[in-house]
DNA sequence: GTGAAAGCGCTAACAC
DNA sequence: GTGTTAGCGCTTTCAC
C-alpha cells in the first residue's frame, strides 16, 4: 500500500498543500521545503499520477496510433516521438491497428477515455477522410497518411515526387516496362501510385500497377505472378519496405537476377536494403524528422488551437544502389 | 469539456451509481440499462480512466521497459505483450532505456507513480542484480536478461546451450579459430560468452572473445580489427542482431567472402539475415512465445503472489544457412 | 508563505 | 435493484 501525500505531510509537520507545492513549483520557504523533501525520502513517497491527472485535468499523455510497430518506419517514428515526449514529461500510449478500421475506432475511443492531451495518428484510408478527427476533444496530428484536408495537422512525405524520382531514375537507366505494387489500405499507397502513373505518362510509357495488402507475403505472390508471366516487366517499384522485401524474395526464389532479370526499387531505407547484393535502390524517408515534427506541431497546436491546419511535407531522398544499375 | 457520469445520470433520470453499474457489471434492470445506454449515446459520454483508476485502485496498466524498441527482438516482444494486454483490457506503457541505468531508475520510478499492475522488464546487468526488484510495489517479470536469482519471475533463452549449438555447428563444419563478440551491458551477453567459451573448451580449442557496446557500429569496428589482423579468425559469432549486422558490414566492406574468407553466425533471426547472400546462420528466438509467456507469468503472479519465482527458459533454434557452409 | 477545505469523476459500501 | 454517500489522492482556491 503506497504512502499518500497525507502521510508525507504528517511526517513533515506541514499541510498537504505545502507538500503539493514542493512537488509542483509553488512558493515554499526553504526551511519547509527541506523538511518536506526529507519526509518524502523517509516515507518513500511516490505521487499518484492518476490522482494528479484527475484533479489537474491534465493527462500529460499523448497517444500514438499506428498500423504496426514492427514496420520499421513506425518503429523509428515511435522512438522519436517517445524520446521527445518523455523529455517534456509526457507519457505515450502506443497502439497498433493492423490497418483494421474497427481497431482504429476502438483505440480512438480509448484515447478519449484517457483524456489524452493530443494524438499522433497514422490512419487507414477509410479513417483518414473522417470529418470528425478535429472533434475528438484533443488535437490530432496525422503522420504518413492523410486524406483530403480534414482540418487537422499532418506530416507527410512528398509521395508523388518520390515516386517520380524512382521512375525518372529507372527510365534514365534504360528501363521501360515498369510495374508497381502499392499498399491498398492507405492514402500513401494511393498517392505513390498516382505519382508513379503520372511520371510514367510524362515519359510516354504505359504502366501496370497493383494495389495489395501492405505485407511481404502479398507482395511475394503478386510479384511472383509478374515474374512468371511471358511479358515480365523489366523493372518493379514497391511502395514500402514490406512490399520491397516480398518482391526481393520473389525474385530471389526464382533465381531472377537483379538487375539483369528485373530491376527493383522501392520505399524505405531499411537496414537490409543496403546489405543485400546487389543493394536496393530506395527512397529514404527522414523518419526522425517526421517524428519530431509531429511532436512540434502537436505542441504548437496545444499552445494555440486557433492557427489553421498545417501540412508539413518532407522530400524523400533517392539512394541509388546496384538493383537499378543501367540496362546497357 | 467532456461530460461526466453525473450528466449521464441526469439525462437518464437515474443515480450515478446505476450508470456506474451499467458501465461495470453490476445488477441493473433491463429497463434502466436501456435508458442509461441511450443517455450515454446522446451525451457522447466517455468514462474518465484516471478517475476510475484512482477510485478503484486498479491501474489496469502494465509497464514494458526495454533497452530499445528498434531492436527487432524487443519490437516483436512488444507486439506480443501489447496484443495480449489490450486483449485483457489493460494499457501498456513502453519505455526505452538505451542500456542507461539512470534512465532505468527514472522509468522504474515512473512505473511506481503510475501504480502499474505489473512490469515486464529487460534490465541492464547493473540493474538485473538489484535486490529490491521484488519490492517495487508490483510484480516484475524479467525478459531476455536476469541476474542471479533476484526473487522475481523471468523468461529467458537458454543462452549457454544456444552458444554451444553455434560452436558445435562451426566446429563440425571444420572451423577452428573462432572469435566471438558479445554485448557488454547485459547478463545475456555474459551468458552467451560463457556458453561460447565452455563449448570451445570442450572441443579443446582456444577462443578469443570481446565485450562491446551492443550496437552495429561497435561491432563493425571490432570485427574490422580482426579481419585486418594477420591471425584473422576463420569464423565469428555475434551475440545479437545488431552485432551480426555490424560484423556482416565489416566483412562486406573489406571484400572478405562468406564463408570463404570468414564464416559468420549469430543470434536473432532478423528478416535480413535470410535475404542476404549467403544467408546467415542464426539462433532464432521464439519472440512471440517469450512475450506471451511474460504476460502469462505476470497474470499468474497477480493471481497468487505466494508462488515462488519461476524461470521459464526457451531453447533457441539453430537455422543453418550459407554463411557457415563446410570449410572443405 | 501557509493551511483549511472543496472537489476532480468515479466506485463501493451501505441502506432501503 | 436502486439511490445516497463517502472517499480514492491530489491540486487549487480562498483566507489569513
TrEMBL record, chains A, B:
<keyword id="KW-0805">Transcription regulation</keyword>
<dbReference type="Pfam" id="PF00356">
    <property type="entry name" value="LacI"/>
</dbReference>
<dbReference type="GO" id="GO:0000976">
    <property type="term" value="F:transcription cis-regulatory region binding"/>
</dbReference>
<keyword id="KW-0238">DNA-binding</keyword>
<feature type="domain" description="HTH lacI-type">
    <location>
        <begin position="3"/>
        <end position="56"/>
    </location>
</feature>
<dbReference type="InterPro" id="IPR000843">
    <property type="entry name" value="HTH_LacI"/>
</dbReference>
<dbReference type="Pfam" id="PF13377">
    <property type="entry name" value="Peripla_BP_3"/>
</dbReference>
<dbReference type="InterPro" id="IPR046335">
    <property type="entry name" value="LacI/GalR-like_sensor"/>
</dbReference>
<protein>
    <submittedName>
        <fullName>LacI family transcriptional regulator</fullName>
    </submittedName>
</protein>
<dbReference type="GO" id="GO:0003700">
    <property type="term" value="F:DNA-binding transcription factor activity"/>
</dbReference>
<dbReference type="InterPro" id="IPR028082">
    <property type="entry name" value="Peripla_BP_I"/>
</dbReference>
<dbReference type="InterPro" id="IPR010982">
    <property type="entry name" value="Lambda_DNA-bd_dom_sf"/>
</dbReference>
<keyword id="KW-0804">Transcription</keyword>
Amino acid at each position: 500500500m503506497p504512502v499518500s501525500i497525507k502521510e508525507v505531510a504528517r511526517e513533515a509537520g506541514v499541510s498537504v498543500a505545502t507538500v503539493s507545492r514542493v512537488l509542483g513549483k509553488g512558493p515554499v520557504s526553504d526551511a519547509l521545503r527541506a523538511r518536506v523533501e526529507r519526509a518524502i525520502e523517509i516515507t518513500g513517497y511516490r505521487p499518484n499520477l492518476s490522482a494528479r491527472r484527475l484533479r489537474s485535468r491534465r493527462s500529460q499523455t499523448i497517444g500514438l496510433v499506428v498500423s504496426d510497430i514492427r514496420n520499421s518506419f513506425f518503429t523509428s517514428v515511435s522512438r522519436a516521438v517517445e524520446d521527445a515526449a518523455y523529455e517534456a514529461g509526457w507519457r505515450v500510449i502506443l497502439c497498433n491497428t493492423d490497418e483494421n478500421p474497427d481497431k482504429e475506432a476502438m483505440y480512438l475511443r480509448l484515447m478519449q477515455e484517457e483524456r489524452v492531451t493530443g494524438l499522433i495518428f497514422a490512419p487507414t484510408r477509410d479513417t483518414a477522410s473522417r470529418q470528425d478527427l478535429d472533434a475528438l476533444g484533443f488535437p490530432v496530428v496525422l503522420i504518413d497518411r492523410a486524406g483530403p484536408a480534414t482540418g487537422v495537422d499532418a506530416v507527410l512525405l512528398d509521395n508523388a515526387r518520390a515516386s517520380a524520382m524512382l521512375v525518372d531514375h529507372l527510365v534514365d537507366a534504360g528501363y521501360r516496362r515498369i510495374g508497381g505494387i502499392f499498399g491498398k489500405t492507405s492514402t500513401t499507397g494511393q498517392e505513390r501510385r498516382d505519382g508513379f502513373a503520372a511520371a510514367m505518362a510524362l515519359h510516354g510509357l504505359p504502366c501496370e500497377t497493383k494495389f495489395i495488402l501492405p505485407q511481404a507475403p502479398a507482395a511475394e505472390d503478386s510479384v511472383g505472378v509478374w515474374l512468371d508471366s511471358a511479358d515480365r516487366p523489366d523493372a518493379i517499384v514497391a511502395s514500402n519496405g514490406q512490399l520491397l522485401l516480398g518482391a526481393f524474395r520473389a525474385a530471389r526464389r526464382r533465381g531472377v537476377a537483379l538487375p539483369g532479370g528485373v530491376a527493383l526499387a522501392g520505399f524505405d531505407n531499411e537496414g537490409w536494403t543496403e546489405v543485400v547484393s546487389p543493394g536496393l535502390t530506395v527512397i529514404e524517408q527522414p523518419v526522425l524528422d517526421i517524428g519530431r515534427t509531429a511532436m512540434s506541431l502537436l505542441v504548437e497546436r496545444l499552445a494555440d488551437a486557433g492557427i489553421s491546419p498545417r501540412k508539413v511535407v518532407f522530400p524523400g531522398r533517392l539512394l541509388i544502389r546496384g538493383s537499378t544499375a543501367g540496362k546497357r
